[in-house]
Amino acid sequence: MSSKLDVIDFGGGNIQSLFRCLDRLEIPYRVKSSQDLPDGSRPMILPGVGAFGAVMKSLEKNGLAERIKSLVEKQIPLLGVCVGLQVLFEESEESPGVPGLGLLPGRVVRFEAKKVPQIGWNRVTCTQGDELSQGYVYFVNSYHARPENGDHTWYEADYEGTFCAAVREQNVAAFQFHPEKSGLFGHRLIQEWHRRVS
Amino acid sequence: MLCRRIIPCLDVDNGRTVKGVKFQGLRDVGDPVELANAYQAQGADELMFLDISASHQGKETMLEVVDQVARDLMIPFSVGGGIRTIEDVHRTLRAGADKVSVNTAAVNRPELIREIAESCGSQCCVLAIDAQRRGDQWVVLTHGGRKDTGLNALEWARRGVEMGAGEILLTSWDQDGTLDGFDLNLTGTFARALSVPVIASGGAGGPHSFVEVFQKAHADAALAATIFHDGTYTVNSLKEAILKEADVPLRQERGTSL
What we know:
The structure holds two protein chains of two kinds.
Chain A: E1 5-8, H1 16-24, E2 29-32, E3 44-48, H2 52-59, H3 64-73, E4 78-82, H4 83-86, E5 91-92, E6 106-110, E7 118-126, E8 134-141, E9 143-147, E10 153-158, E11 162-169, E12 172-175, H5 183-197
Parallel strand pairs in A: 1-2, 1-3, 3-4, 4-12, 5-6
Antiparallel strand pairs in A: 6-9, 7-8, 7-10, 10-11, 11-12
Chain B: E1 5-13, E2 16-21, E3 24-30, H1 32-41, E4 47-51, H2 56-72, E5 77-80, H3 86-95, E6 99-102, H4 104-108, H5 111-120, E7 125-134, E8 137-142, E9 147-152, H6 153-163, E10 167-172, H7 184-193, E11 198-201, H8 207-215, E12 221-224, H9 226-229, H10 235-245
Parallel strand pairs in B: 1-4, 1-12, 4-5, 5-6, 6-7, 7-10, 10-11, 11-12
Antiparallel strand pairs in B: 1-2, 2-3, 7-8, 8-9
Helix pairs in contact in B: 1-2, 8-10
């Protein structure tokens, strides 16, 4: 079967679990990297685990970040996961002075909660009227995005206060949680995103 | 609101799931891959695998089990038992585990915790502590309970967190396998004192024991083996029974296949 997605591997985190998730969903994919830049022929997934600054540094190798930005401007769909959501924004409290991709206006801030990171299942609620209106997903995060434009929030959740759990604006979408570890609901989110961009 | 997690635990010996009381009198309770899938379908929030094989061959078999489990599992899972070096950690994560848990090896060489946190992130480093009551405190046991280290368990947990442990799996040696309920004093003391999630383990019985460990002891998660292996409860029937008794935030998911 020919591939339908490009997964961007910049060398950080456990990307295998996303591959296994796409295998379970029977969605074929290619792997792209700073050595083999995505060419815009397929929708892209940008998974990421690690610190904001370290992830941005890896993305900047060989013009990968610039390539992603220019493809997004050409309306190629992009799905960010975890830190892959955070780097879509302009900056993060985690790595002051390091600019993000800046595809969405806003910044990434640290949770003000008793236990940080948030680890575990939390209920997300859709704010954009999707059929997958609410469900439980698995989070591991100390930081979360604060979009400048509230309309960009796609799902929200509560961790000692409401926070943005997913964003969607035109061809850019992203999950702060790990859909690949979020049971049937998480898998359906990926399936549905894939259906829409195919 | 963050849900409290219910985590079935599978002790694996040479590729088979076993269960004993206080790690003694082990009996075979099934194929770990089949059990993992069954628990996922029942609504488990996460799974914990503990490899108790002594042999080198057993360790290799465990990595094959991890690989098989990772293909099917849509929820996070941890693997512990016999992880001594950062190479063991990498091999286990590469095989598909989301987290590793370390116990004896971390007591022997605490740097291991820092190495895991720096190389793979705190989120995949679970520090497992077997605690035994000693007066009004607890000491750390290692080697599956056979060795008394004399270490103060709470001090050890604090140090582990400072070094980068992302979660504490806290097993009450006094309660393990008894079905008498979790050690609320132990769990509550640690959950209040630590900035990372505490997974209560040892003594899981009926729904009431879960209500107590979540509400009175503020456990972030609770681990159980016997009640699930014996079929006394499925994860979902346990969750329903807990919700009948108390308002505990629990994940509920309907449906079992894609």
